[in-house]
Each structure stands twice: as structure tokens, then as C-alpha cells.
Amino acid sequence: MTDHPLPFRDPQLPFATRVDDLLGRLTLDERVAMLHQFAPAVERLGLGPFRTGQEALHGVAWMGPATVFPQAVGLGATWNEDLVRRVGEAVGDEVRAKRATDDRVGLNVWAPTVNLLRHPLWGRGEEGYSEDPALTSAVAVAYTRGLRGDHPRYWRTAPVLKHWLAHNNETDRDTASSSVRPRVLHEYDLRAFRDAVRAGAVAGVMPAYNLVNGRPNHVSPYLERYLRCWTDQPLVVCSDAGAPSNLVDSEHYFDTHEEATAASLKAGVDSFTDHGQDSAVMIGRIRGALDKGLIDAGDIDTAVRRLLTMRFTLGEFDPGLDPYAEVDGPDTAEHRALALEAAEQAVVLLKNDGLLPLEPKPGRTVAVVGLLADACKLDWYSGTLMHRSTPLDGIRERYGAENVLFADGVDRVRLKCSEGWLQVPAADGTTDGEARAAGGALDPALLAGRTDLPPLTCGQEATELALTDWGDGVLTFRTEEGLYLSVADDGRVRASADEPGGWVVQETFRREAVEGHEDGHRLLHIGTGGYVSVAADGAKVAVAGEKISAADATVFVTETVQRGEDAVARAAAAADTVVVVTGNDPHINGRETEDRTTLALPAQQDRLWRAAHAANPRTVLVLTSAYPYAVTDAAERLPALLWTAHGGQAAGAALARILSGDVSPAGRLPQTWYASDDDLPGLFDYDVIGSRQTYLYFDGTPLYPFGHGLGYADFTYSALRTEVDGDRLGVSLTVTNDGSTAADEVVQVYVRAAAPGETAPSPEGPGRRPGPSDLPLRKLVAHRRISLAPGAAERVEFDVPVAELGHWSVAHGRWTVEPGAYEILTGASSADIRLTATALVDGEPLGPRPVVARGLDAVDYDRQEDTEIVDRTKTEGDAVAPASADREGSLVYLACDFGQGVDALALLASGEGGITVSAGGQSTLLRFPDTGGPYEYRTFEAAIALRGVHELRIGLAGSVRLARIDVVPGKESA
Asked: What are phi and psi of 671, to 5 degrees?
């Protein structure tokens, strides 16, 4: 070994010095190649290959056996940062352990997802932590600190936050634009990312597929304006898969891929995830952008420097000094115990009229029924189970198998066709396939279905199938052996899948009535869009790659052998207590690429709990799901309800320990459970303020409020004290366990402006604060999960930044805490407030909008109707346009101070149409022809004499885009 290593190999030098040295030794081609997700080795310098992107949302995903923890929304339901940090540490260690034996495993982990759960119909709600930015931030900080590790120099893994920014719809996800006003941007969406980045445990972010205010997230100016201003660390921005191509192919935002790639790089994207492991296409685009002068070598170097810095922090160049190089394998006793603990803490007791806990006793029988009673469901970002505990498993173990009855609640059916009965042929014993997803794969979307089994046929002997309707008419069929009917690449239908799954699910079907056949129906295979046809060579949905049409489909008649609700009713009637386990399959009706259509529990599952309850009033409903349901009837009629996200490998054991009273439940809802679809805004409405979304603004009555959750002990809150000391707000209170069992309590602290209606601005006056409809009804600023023995008490103290009491002032373009009184609310949920105090904050009120000095950016409105925010240019700025060409949009700006007087307003606008200006009892209409395109702005003057403080109203019609409003001073004031 040389005594004088190359500087980049010298561990005594700072990382920045070593990065600069290595960067200077790389050729331009080598640097360009590093910008793809799969960067090749540079053998002449001893550099190995490197990949960005190892999925690790709630365990190591896609790489074979790993500890499977509860879904992210379940971790959010624990409200326990200490627990979540330990989960992050365990996941990080398992990434390291897998990397040691499989160099396909990357140390740059794409987790966590911090998109806020704004809308409960979003298909990817399972991936987020909460609808609240403060709770999401706290959990994200904990998880990323665990993933990162606590070594001051080297990182266990390098976490990347997903998905920047304002991303809550799978429908049209790569073409839809989220209209995000400044207050929502600063108070809601940015907040979820900001605190985790500031905490120093985040290596980067991934932009989302969608557009924000008309501009794709992959060319967002916010990456530089906000994200990289929150830390001195050189954050890496990794594109989402295929998103660079979307800029041209689906979004049509740029004409050429060279332009799109250059714009992404200049906006701050460092690593391009596109075309899988084939880097040639992206490298060609980058080289093309260089050749055309759209970027230069400096732009390449900026991105590569960030990527190299991440690699140095992961210990790649100092293997002998890497503190995380040697870790235990994934299946450790500690990780198994942690998975159980996490699953227990994620369970939320929604209602309990005294039925729970259900103590095991000799002779006490329990019926466990429902579609998920014997299921341990995984989602798209799960690893492969090493251990599996279903509710049935857990309850049998805890109560004794001899005391447990079971009915899965499926309908048992046979399908008849003209040639006989649909049947599953016996395999010939020579099959050599393996179950899908049994091993690790960089991209499980590439895993194909089995073709080694014979396809279904029609014959004289019927195969009885378990039919499940998951809602919206989406069906699965399963054999008695537990295999789902599935379609492989050859288009044939086989009984071959252990579970529904895959990027395109191949196990779901839909029945369609056939005209002229009273009971007949076709079967549409949803994944391919082909219809099932049974011929001499077997059942198929496609021939030679061509989908079978409805006209060529086989007509089936379904014969029901047994209704699921009848079996459930029999089991329920025969038991002392019945536990109905319902919910969703994470691959069906609500997942990545697919939003839900309703909050309603699917009809088949609704029938099951009703049948159980009719047979036995001692019925417990367990909702195991990735999202909320509107189960108003169940909440009214049943004595006990629980909810848990899919709890991972230990879900069943955890549920049994909760039901039996071994553990008192203390999970809390991380999002509002609405009572009806009628309570929901549109899926694409991102204005949580204007449309009254989430617990922050929703003024209706939810089914269950944010933060709700019960336990087996009662707690008393007392002695609340608050103190404002400079920029800190101290809050302290005493919590006492009045129950007879040890239990956890989640203490929650909320704030709101005192008597907001009394301090709201008048239409023409300056005011001090936004109106009551604009301020949160309450806002979480602190929480803590504590454990107390029976009769024990604890003094709980919180240190809250006074800034948390504030909001974004659109009038003044900055964060502000208005002086005055604020209520401090402490309790067990956002609706269960036990103690209230008032804190006074001093300072100078900001006063009205200084429009003479600052003018108005159109986007800084107070209220709007029928408008959307669009991009002012392709690189910077916002404008406002009518949401529809056939309906006028309106904007309202409160308390505008026109000083000593103005003669006119100057409006910077593009497009074609009209702008109406109204203020001070005056109104004027401007009409103008097409300015030459949406990005060709001109200034138009509206003659209107104003003096003093007024409300300004703007109407927009046609294809107008309004960017800014300035004043034309009056002669006297000038």
C-alpha cells in the first residue's frame, strides 16, 4: 500500500476536499454517467458501481426476506417518535446487512414518504404518516434519524424524502397540476419536508410526478428557493421513475428531451431515474443538452459533487472506518420484538362500550370471521415475510385454538358455461415455477406470472371458488388450496397466485351482464382489458397478444354454493363473542396508480358485520386498512370498533394482545375519519383553507376526529401552565392514570387564535388577523406518548416555538405571529380538549396590505372562486387564471392600503379575455386581444381612483393569466 494515497482516498481530509479531488480526476463522460440512477464503475480509479434508490418505507422492500413493520400510516398512528426511530434503525441495519451479501441493494434509501394525507381517497395514503404537517414532520424526523444513524461523520443509510410536492392524487398523476396558494404552500405542504431537512438526517428528496401551479415538480424553482436553503448539506434530488421522460411525453412541457433534461438539471435534479438500468438514453440526452449549449460542465459538476458527497458519507471510500459495515442479519430477536411492539402501538380503539378487553377464560369461545380474518396483507413497498401472524393465528394462540371458530366470509361459487363447469385441472407434478415475489428483485413490476401450470378448462366436475368483491365490482377468485386465478404473459388464466399483486394486478376480474342471458355474465380481466374465453386449449383473455373482445367471451352463470354472510352468522351464533375483521387488500381499489372512489366499506364486508351482529350482539369490528372508512352504522350499532393499518409480520399477535387486555391500546388517528363522501372536497382541490379540509379547517362533525383513540384506562389532566419567554412558549401539565391497568396516553397540545371573530378585519378596515374562516380551528404544536402505571402521575412539559402560533402573511410576504391572545388547548384528541389556557404574545401588528410600496402578486389573494394557479414562466413565478374558460373566476384581496391615492392599477397579464377590477364602490372592465401566448405578458391599466384602505376584487374571464397588480400613483401622492 502506498504511503501517499490519492487525496480522495485520505480519510484524514474533509469530505469536501476529497470530493473536489475525485471530481477533478473524473472525465466528463464519467461524470455524465454518474447522473443516472445506475452509475457504472470507474475501474481506473477503483470506484465501484452505485445506485440511488432502495425502497425502505416500512422495512426493506423488493429485496427478499426482511422484517415487515406496520405500514407508514400505522407508524404515524403510534404518535411515538422514539419507537419510529428504533424502527428506522432496524430498517437501516437490515439494508446494511443485505448490502453485505447482495451488491444490488443500495444504501440510498427512498423513504420516508412525507406527503400529507390531505384527502382520504388518495390511493397512496398508506405511504404517508398523517394529514397534519407537525405530526408528519415529527415522525419523519424520527424515522430518518434512525435510518441515518448517530455517527457524526458516516451515515447508516442516506434517506430521501418523497414526493416533493403537494402530491395526493393518483388519477392523472403525471399531468394534473396542484393549485397551491402561498398560505397552503408555507403553512402546510412545505412544512412536512422542512423540519426533517433541518434536523440533518435527510440526504435528499424525490420530486413527485405531478405539477404544482402549472409547472412540473421536476423543474420546480422551490428546490433551490426553499429546500436547499434549509440546510448547508448538499442534498441530492433523485427523480421519480420515468418522470424525466414525462416532461415531454405526457406533460408536453418541453418540445425535446434535451431541453427537459437541461431544465431539470438546472432546477436541481441530480440523479435521473429513467429507462430502468439502461442508462444510455439519459446519458444521450445529457450529452445532447451539452452539445446544444443548454447546460455546461459546471451544471454537471454541481450534481456530481452532491452525489459523491453522499457516497463518501456512506463510507464507500473508507470501508475500514465505516461504523455500520458490520451488522446482524435481518431476522433478529430484537427486530421481531420491535415489529410486535410497533404493531401493538399502531392499533386504535375507536369505540368501546365495555366489551373490551376480552379476557381469555376457560370455555370462552371467540368467532374470528371476515375477509381479512386469516390474512397478513403486504403492500407494494413491503418486503417478503419471514414470519406471518394473521388475526386468526394471534387469537388462536392467545385464546386457545379449541376456543376459536372461523369463517372467512367469502361466497363459495361455481361457474357454469355451455361446455360444463369451470375447473382447475390438476398439475402434472412437473412444475418448476416459483411463487411471484418469492425472491428479491430490483423492480418487482418485472416479475411475471407462472406459465408452468395448466390453464383453467371447462368440464363435468366443477371447481368451487372463493369469490370476494372488494368493492366497485372488483372480484377475485381463489381455490380451496389458496391460489388465486391469475393471468400470465401468455394470456392464459390459471390458479397460480398466492396473493393479488404486481404493478398491474393480474388477479382481478369484473362481471358484466350479457343481453339475452337472464343470469349470464362475462368476466372481464381488469389487468389486461381482455375477456375470459374458455376453449379446448384452456381459458384465456388474449390470443397472440390480442385481447379477447366481449363478443368472443364465454358466458358464465354463477351458482352460489354458500353465501359468506350465512357462514359468518353460524360461527357468530355459536360463539360467546365475535371478531369481524374487514378492510382492504393494499393492491386493490386504492394503491399507487389508483385512487379510491368512496369512503364506504365494500358491500360484501358490510353484510358480514351486519350478519355477525344480528346473530350475536357481542360483536367487535376490526378495520384493517390503509385508509379511513365511513362506517357510520357500525359506529352506532356495534359495542366495539378498532382500526389498524396493515400491521406487518406481527399484526395478528398484536391484535390478540390488544383484544385480550395484555396491552392497553393507545394508537391515535393520524387523519380525520369523515362520516360521508359528502364531507369531502374534490380530489384535485389542494386548497385546504378554502375548501375546509383536514381537522385544521373542517367545521363539520367527523365520524372520528384527528387524534382520537381510546384505551383501557382513564386519565386526568390537571395543573396546566403556560409561559411565553421570548420566542418560546412553555406548556406544562400533569397527567394521572386513574385506571387499574398500566397504559399509554398521548398528550396533545393545540393552539388557536383567541376569539378570531372579534379580531377579524372588516371589509374596509386594516384588521390584525385573517378572518375566522382563514385561521385553523385548532393546530397541533406538540404531543407526547407516555406510559403510566395505575395511579401514577407525570408532569409533562413542552417547549413550543412561538412561531408555531403564526401563519404566512400574503399581505406582507412573510411568516408572522400577530400580537394578541392565543388559546392553548390540551387533551386526548383534537376534539377531546381537557384543559385550556391563554397565552399573550406581544409585538406590532402588521396592518393592511402596503400595495403602494409592494404591489400585489396575483397569487397572494385572500379568497378565490373558480380560479387556478398557473406558471408565470417555465422557470419562475406564478399567475392566476380562470379554472374554466366558460366561467369567470374571482379573486379577493382584503385590506389593501392605497395610501394618499392612486389613479389606476397596472395589471400584468397574458392571454385573451377580460379583467374586472372592483374596489371602493367602483368597477371597471378591461378587455384585450391575445397577447401572443400564455407566457407573453403585457401591462394593462385600469383607471380607478382609490384612496385609503379598501377590499379589492378581481374578475378573470377567458384565457387570461394575471401575474401582478401595481399602482399608478395619483398626481397628489406622486
From this structure: -150, 160
Q: Tens digit of pLDDT for each residue in 599-615?
A: 999 999 999 999 999 99
Rounded CA-CA distance 427/454 in Å is 6
Q: 45, 54, 6, 1: which is closest to 26 by C-alpha? A: 45
Query: Could you say which DSSP state residue 311 is in?
Result: H
Angle between helices 651-660 and 333-346 (to 10 degrees): 50
- Identify the active-site residue in 189, 240, 606, 862: 240
Instruction: Note if 240 is an active site residue.
Output: yes
**DSSP H or E segment with residue 264:** helix 257-267
The sign of the torsion formed by the CA atoms of 379, 380, 382, 384 equals positive
Which phi and psi angles does 364 have, rounded to 5°? -75, 125
| 827 and 746 Cβ atoms separated by less than 8 Å | no
Residue pair 568/608 in contact (Cβ under 8 Å)? The answer is yes
Integer CA distances (angstroms), 729 to 80, 800, 803, in order = 22, 5, 9
Phi, psi at 924, each rounded to 5°: -140, 145
Cell (9 digits) for 651: 399484526
Q: Which residues contact 310 (CB under 8 A, 6 or more apart)?
A: 108, 158, 203, 204, 234, 236
What is the four-CA torsion angle of 780, 785, 786, 790, rounded to 10 degrees?
A: 100
Quote the cell numbers at residue 588. Answer: 386493490
Placement of cell 436553503 in the chain = 229
Evaluated on CA atoms 704, 705, 706, 711, the torsion sign reads negative
Contact 790, 744 (CB under 8 A): no
How many Å apart are CA 322 and CA 488, to the nearest integer? 45
Return the amino acid letter for 410: V
Q: What are phi and psi of 383, to 5 degrees?
A: -85, -175
Please return the burial class of 694, using the count of CB atoms within 10 Å of its CB with bins 0-12, 13-18 and 19+. Answer: buried
pLDDT 10s digits, 887-937: 999 999 999 999 999 999 999 999 999 999 999 999 999 999 999 999 999
Neighbours of 199 (CB within 10 A): 18
Buried b (16+ CB within 10 A) or exposed e, 62-90: bbbbbbbbbbbbbbbbbbbbebbbbbbbb
The letter for the amino acid at 927 is R
DSSP character at residue 945 = E
Alpha helices in 126-217 (DSSP H): 133-148, 182-184, 190-198
Q: In terms of C-beta density within 10 A (0-12 exposed, 13-18 middle, 19 or more buried), how is residue 637 classed?
A: middle
Name the amino acid, one letter, at 780: L
Question: Can you tell me the distance from the alpha carbon of 185 to that of 956, in angstroms, rounded to the nearest whole number?
Answer: 23
Separation between Cα atoms, residue 602 and residue 469, nearest integer Å? 8
Question: In this structure, which amino acid lies at residue 425?
Answer: P
pLDDT tens for 86-107 read 999 999 999 999 999 999 999 9
